[in-house]
Design goal:
421 residues, mainly alpha, 3-stranded antiparallel β-sheet, 47% helix, globular
């Protein structure tokens, strides 16, 4: 989108000025080289701020609500990761956690006492310790950004960093249960109740230990099918904004699964909800005779001229993937009806699982057999910034890790060996 710069103007006294965000900036005598140079400097400064509506404001009149909005706009522009789990979307939580009474404060008025009050408000809402610490760190990152943009003084920002991290048991704060591994037998029993597409996704994640988002973003154009191990150079992944590279290596068993989906358009996603829904409907046993009831695809909603509330798309989201697993768990391991609520909760915790636990399985098994370095390479973790210089080394490490992992006894079967129940 093309933007026009504020014009170089003259007032009644013959002085040059420019108005940015309805604030006049005096430039000196109209028409002089000095005033023209100062005009260009002001325009450059305004452009460097991202044409921010807060440009030119002082720290004494910028409110916390404006900082919150500006920080989210910054994340939407600068952070590559998008979607409901992105940092830009999670920044909306700030409006939920910071009370309205503080949003009219200037950034310098929001001090350590106010930040502690925000934290105690989250404690009163029974949020977990991990969630509270994460939201406090997000607020501190927002103030750090505000300081770099001259919207907050260094002293005010440094004061907020004096807040301590919540320790286990402090203020009686709730602890989340640790995410552990899941039994392969439970996984294989669960995917019998999944569509073949979702089953293939689970099997690939078991064999590669990748993140759910990395799996769901796979496209034919990302996969190099030459060599013993196929390698996917992921263009969009969690740590892309840090300048890191991420590779997935697929052994023979993974290649057998991927071959079913490589006949798509190069830029199309491999795993698509619309295809999964077609498979689910095809495998669903119709009890009503075909000459009675609704014909396939002609429900009451369609007869009335209405469409489905949500049509299956061409790409799975992490939430849809997790929901499909949750539904399959409920069908494979229904909660007993004759137990107490506490026993029912323990039953679900021991029999229901999430896709992220498959990553824990791969990490644990790899670390036990080949050490932390191989596990780090398989999962794509790194403490060093990855640049293009290290791209080939990262790729080689991913292939070596996948080769080691393929030698382990990971229980994987082909989804074509069974049909949905």
């Amino acid at each position: 989108m093309a933007y026009s710069n504020p014009p170089y103007r003259k007032n009644k006294k013959g002085e040059a000025f420019v108005s940015i965000n309805r604030r006049p900036y005096m430039l000196g005598t109209y028409g002089t080289p000095e005033s023209l140079a100062l005009y260009k400097a002001r325009i450059l400064e305004w452009g460097a701020s991202g044409r921010s509506p807060m440009f030119g404001r002082t720290v004494t009149d910028i409110t916390l609500a404006e900082i919150m909005l500006g920080y989210r706009e910054h994340l939407l522009k600068e952070v590559a990761q998008k979607g409901p789990t992105s940092e830009a979307n999670r920044a909306l939580n700030l409006f939920k956690h910071i009370p309205k009474v503080y949003r009219s404060f200037t950034v310098n008025e929001f001090k350590l006492d106010q930040l502690r009050a925000v934290r105690h408000a989250m404690i009163d809402r029974k949020l977990s310790r991990k969630t509270i610490n994460g939201e406090i760190r997000r607020i501190l990152r927002m103030f750090t950004w505000a300081t770099t943009e001259n919207y907050c003084t260094v002293e005010a920002c440094a004061t907020l960093f004096q807040i301590s991290t919540l320790k286990p048991g402090e203020f009686g704060v709730k602890e989340l249960p640790e995410i552990g591994c899941v039994s392969p037998k439970i996984v294989l029993e669960t995917i019998k109740y999944c569509s073949p597409v979702v089953a293939d996704m689970v099997l690939l994640q078991m064999k590669t230990g990748c993140r759910s988002g990395e799996l769901l973003n796979l496209r034919p154009m990302d996969i190099n099918c030459n060599g013993e191990f196929w390698v996917a150079d992921l263009k969009n992944h969690k740590t892309k904004w840090r300048g890191k590279k991420r590779f997935l290596a697929f052994d023979v068993s993974c290649q057998k699964i991927l071959k079913k989906y490589l006949n798509r358009e190069p830029a199309a996603y491999l795993f698509q909800p619309c295809e999964s829904e077609e498979q689910r409907r095809a495998l669903k046993h119709r009890k009503t005779p075909q000459n009675s009831g609704n014909s396939p695809g002609y429900s009451k909603r369609v007869r009335e001229g209405r469409t489905a509330l949500r049509q299956p798309g061409d790409r799975f989201t992490s939430q849809a993937y997790g929901k499909a697993i949750r539904y399959a768990c409920e069908r494979a391991f229904p909660t007993p009806s004759d137990v107490s609520p506490a026993e029912a909760k323990r039953w679900r915790e021991s029999h229901h699982w999430t896709p992220h636990q498959l990553r824990h399985n791969a990490a644990t098994l790899m670390k036990q057999e080949f050490g932390s370095e191989a596990s780090t390479a398989l999962l794509g973790h790194s403490k060093l910034d990855t640049t293009s210089i290290y791209a080939e080394n990262t790729k080689k490490m991913a292939i070596d890790a996948a080769r080691k992992f393929s030698t382990l006894d990971v229980q994987v079967i082909d989804s074509s060996d069974f049909s949905s129940k």
